[in-house]
Write a structure and sequence with these properties.
Layout (H helix, E strand, L loop, with lengths): L3 E2 L2 E2 H35 L4 H10 L3 H13 L6 H37 L4 H29 L4 H18 L1 H16 L7 E4 L2 E8 L3 E5 L5 E5 H6 L2 E3 L6 E9 L5 H16 L4 E11 L4 E9 L4 H22 L14 H8 L1
Length: 352
């Protein structure tokens, strides 16, 4: 036991090994017990915090437990100043990495729980992944700076250099940064969310994804439309996803030989047909104008739900009932016609 091995007696190595095993057992048992306690608490409560903590504790790496145990056991050994510094830096690096894993797991799982609680809100779903990415980038940047400072690096000059380099990079990637700030503008202002149907200039589609640089729509034909965020924010957008009601307007043309009293009754007839539907609100119906080949009656009403399918079903029912009413009362729909009048003198000249 008194024999020396690598500068330490065998008894010292045995003591270090005992400390290593004891610390490792305590840390592993603590991780297991805390995890089990949080799992029971998570099942008994409706809050998401304990669910997040369960995942955070489960992300504890075995190498972290080993590094802490080895560093603690080495404290009873004479390893020399240089070796002690190296072991301390290795242990510090492992601890910082584990803290980074805990923090990023907490950030990602917290945002995921937030998204699950608000799964019906398209804007939340859109921004969970980008916010998680930004959070991870910030956390690992802080961990890196702390690690470099502990290793003796001058982070002041490093931060200054990164600032100057950041300005140069920003000038080189202005378009990318423009898209990035436009993405945050979309997130804050919420002109649209995932699932909304947009019309942008002469293109239209349903929003599928909003990223840092591009927003992607799926058109009715099936192809994907990709817009840069800066172009999209600068465009005039028609968002049909935020419709509460849908305005419908249509015209009916009847022949010129329709009697005035019959023509006068048509707006009231149309109003009666529209008001017979529960999902509509009548606005107006008037004899609007004398058309080229028809007397034109214009009607406007509101469909009390935004779905295009509902609008088409109601309009179809109105059209069919209007045809039945016109047929029953002998009212004729107009269609384009031309009447050619030939004078008698011209007809005589042609015959001769």
């Amino acid at each position: 036991m008194s024999e020396t091995f690598l500068g330490n007696p065998v008894s010292g190595w045995l003591t270090a090994a005992a400390i290593f095993l004891a610390v490792l057992a305590v840390l592993w048992l603590a991780r297991h017990l805390v995890g089990r306690y949080l799992e029971k608490m998570a099942k008994a409560t409706t809050t998401a915090v304990d669910d997040v903590l369960v995942v955070v504790i489960a992300s504890t790496r075995p190498v972290f437990l080993l590094a802490i145990s080895l560093w603690t056991g080495s404290k009873v050994l004479e390893v020399g100043a240089r070796a002690e510094v190296v072991l301390g830096r290795i242990a510090l690096g492992v601890v910082l990495l584990q803290i980074g894993v805990w923090a990023t797991t907490f950030c990602a799982e917290g945002l995921e729980q937030f998204r699950r609680e608000r799964a019906d809100q398209g804007d939340i779903i859109t921004w969970v992944a980008p916010l998680a990415w930004v959070g991870k980038a910030i956390i690992w940047s802080i961990i890196l700076l702390i690690g470099l400072e502990k290793l003796g690096a001058d982070i002041t000059s490093l931060v200054t250099g990164l600032g100057i380099g950041g300005i140069a990079v920003a000038l080189a990637v202005q378009s990318v940064l423009g898209d990035l700030f436009s993405a945050f503008s979309i997130f804050i202002d919420k002109p649209f969310v995932i699932g909304d149907y947009l019309v942008v200039d002469n293109l239209s589609g349903t929003v599928e994804h909003v990223g840092f640089k591009t927003t992607r729509l799926r058109s009715l034909n099936g192809e994907q439309l990709v817009f840069s965020n800066s172009d999209l924010v600068a465009s005039r957008i028609q968002n049909f996803g935020s419709l509460v009601e849908r305005r419908a307007k249509f015209t009916v043309g009847v022949t010129y030989d329709t009697p005035p009293e019959t023509l006068e009754s048509i707006p009231g007839m149309i109003r009666e047909i529209i008001e017979s539907h529960d999902r509509t609100r009548f606005e107006r119906s008037h004899f609007k104008e004398f058309g080229d080949s028809a007397l034109v009656v214009e009607t406007v009403y509101q469909v009390l739900e935004p779905a295009f399918q509902a609008y088409m079903e109601i309009q179809e029912a109105v059209n069919l009932e209007l045809m039945q009413r016109f047929a029953a009362q002998g009212i004729e729909f107009a269609y384009p016609t031309q009447t050619i009048l030939l004078s008698e003198s011209r007809a005589t000249d042609r015959r001769s």
